[in-house]
Amino acid sequence: QYKIIHHYLPTNSWLKKANLIETDQCNNCKEKHTIEHLLLYCEDVQKFWKQFCVWWERCTKQDLVLNEKMIIYGVIEKSEHVRTLAHCILIAKFCIYTCFIKNTKPNLTIFKNRLHQTIELDNQAEKWKHVK
Q1: Are 106 and 45 in contact (CB under 8 A)?
Q2: Does residue 132 have a pLDDT over 70?
Q3: Distance set, CA 14 to CA 4, 90, 104, 105 (Å)
Q4: Does residue 44 contact residue 36 with C-beta atoms inside 8 Å?
Q5: Which residue of 10, 33, 65, 119 has the fewest CB atoms within a 10 Å radius of its CB?
Q6: For the ranges 7-21, 39-53, 108-122, which has the lowest average pLDDT?
Q7: In three state form, how does the secondary structure of 67-127 look?
Q8: Nearest Cα to 92, choosing from 68, 71, 66?
Q9: How many CA atoms lie within 13 A of 40 on its CB side?
C-alpha cells in the first residue's frame, strides 16, 4: 500500500523511466502501464473488480460499488464490514500486482486462494500468541 500511495510501485511506465525495459505499455492491452492503469483501468483488471464486487455481495449481502479512492487509497465509507472490505481490497491489489509480475490475468480464484492463505496465517498467529 505504501508503494501505491507514494507512486513507487514498479509498473512498466516506471521501469521504462528507469531504463530497465524498452516499453511502457501494459502487457495485456498495450495502454500506458501506470499504477492507475494497473489497478483500475486495464480491461482485465476491470473484469476482476466486477467479479470481486459480485463475490463480496454474495458473501455479505451488501451492495458494493468500488471507486478510485477505495481501490487506490483504501478510503472506504463506514459500513458494516469496513475493516474486512479494506483488508480484502488490499489482498486483491496484491494479487493484481502479483499477476502483473507473472504476466498472467488477475482472477477471483487467485484472490480467494490468497485470502484463504491470509486467514490461515492469522489463525496460526492467534494460536502462537497463547504459547509460552
Answers
A1: yes
A2: no
A3: 12, 21, 19, 20
A4: no
A5: 65
A6: 7-21
A7: CHHHHHHCCCCCCCCHHHHHHHHHHHHHHHHHHHHHCCCCCHHHHHHHHHHHHHHHHHHHH
A8: 71
A9: 14
